[in-house]
Write a structure and sequence with these properties.
This protein is α+β, with helices and mostly antiparallel strands and 367 residues long. The N and C termini lie far apart (61 Å). The chain is built from 10 helices and 21 strands. Helix 5 packs across helix 10. A 6-stranded mixed β-sheet has the order 17-14-18-19-20-21, with helices on both faces. The protein has a 4-stranded antiparallel β-sheet with strand order 1-2-3-4. Strands 7-6-9-10 form a 4-stranded mixed β-sheet.
Length: 367
């Protein structure tokens, strides 16, 4: 029997890694404030369970007196199912209050070469407020970057943050902004990063819908997942080369600073403006000017992406008479995270870009 997980990482592979750790050796827990150590006593079969002992020497506890405990195949299967190369997972959050040996499994995994512990940044959405804060402990699987067997190693993850929402982790992958952003002419800030993360989320969601994405000309110097944004598949670098835009005078120029545009084979499914602190009006104005250069394409949506706390502000601006012709939608950050999480968790099939409307708020009232 071989238990194969959805991500292709098997419990057998996990057991093989753990079997390579010397039995009886003492492995310290990851948290420095915890003085507990754990040993592997026995691995029953290729699929577990694993018998361990753990004790805290600072409390006078000894290995001899420690009770044998079991790491079950069921727990290992749940953890293995969550493992994807390069994606941090929070073991405590994954398993909740289940399994009293979850920290022992986490510790033992991180003593094997492909597993590191890490503290990715945390995007906090409380009452709609968006901030990047120091993160919680996670485990990350990096098979291409093995460390020495039997050692605990931390992986520093710069430019990677996680937004934890119910039922799933949303990972905003490694994102590097230029030292000075042409858009704002100032040093990289949290607001710049969140703005660019929303653009990358739109790009990733678009890929799930088999769409290409244009990112604003003045954001083209972003590095994403280790390479220039312009080197990624499904990124459009010039609107003038897109027949549905380039064929019309002034359209490419009007659209070049729009934050993100989804492009289909013969369609423009959505135009996005991401607003963090610059206000809603400039984005609506850019979309309005862009729309005026184009014919009426069926199914073209104009969307304001903004923090949850901006709802009233976005609603007021969208309903101003000069923007009524856009019939713009509001896409709150929390909904972006929810849809991105769904795209990361599941390979979407048989749906079209219209699925995004499930996550949009139609705040236009001037019908």
């Amino acid at each position: 029997m071989s238990v194969i997980t959805n991500n292709g990482f098997t419990v057998a592979e996990m057991i093989n890694l753990l079997s390579a750790l010397p039995k009886g050796a003492e492995y310290p827990y990851i948290n420095n404030s915890t003085h507990t150590v754990v040993t592997i006593e026995e691995i029953i079969s290729h699929y577990g369970p694993i018998t361990i002992k753990r004790w805290d020497p600072t409390k006078g506890e000894t290995k001899k007196a420690a009770e044998p405990l079991s790491i079950s195949m069921a727990m290992m299967n749940r953890v293995a199912n969550a493992i994807t190369s390069g994606t941090p997972i929070n073991i405590d959050r994954l398993l909740g209050a289940s399994y009293n040996t979850r920290s022992a499994l986490e510790t033992l995994l991180c003593h094997t070469p492909p597993f590191y512990y890490c503290y990715p940044g945390r995007i906090e959405l409380i009452h709609g407020k968006t901030k990047i804060k120091s993160g919680h402990k996670h485990v990350i699987y990096l098979p291409e970057e093995p460390h020495e067997m039997g050692l605990l190693c931390e992986k520093k993850l710069e430019h990677l943050e996680i937004n934890e929402i119910p039922s799933k982790n949303v990972v905003y992958n490694a994102l590097e902004l230029p030292a000075h952003t042409p858009r704002l002419g100032k040093v990289d800030t949290n607001e710049d990063r969140i703005h660019s993360q929303m653009q990358m989320a739109i790009y990733e969601i678009g890929c799930s819908f088999s769409l290409k994405t244009y990112i604003a000309q003045n954001d083209s110097s972003i590095r994403y997942k280790g390479k220039m944004l312009t080197e990624h598949d499904n990124i459009v670098t010039s609107l003038s080369e897109i027949p549905t835009i380039g064929a019309f005078d002034g359209a490419a120029n009007a659209g070049k600073l729009i934050d993100a545009i989804w492009l289909g084979n013969k369609s423009i499914p959505a135009v996005f403006e991401v607003e963090q602190s610059t206000g809603v009006t400039p984005g609506l104005t850019r979309m309005s000017n862009f729309k005026k250069t184009l014919p009426e394409y069926r199914g073209m949506r104009y969307i304001i992406v903004a923090p949850d706390e901006y709802r009233d502000k976005v609603t007021r601006e969208i309903n101003k008479p000069e923007f009524a012709h856009l019939h713009a939608y509001y896409f709150p950050y929390s909904a972006v995270s929810e849809l991105l999480g769904l795209c990361q968790e599941r390979k979407l099939k048989g749906i079209t870009e219209a699925f995004i409307e499930t996550f949009l708020d139609d705040v236009y009232t001037n019908r």
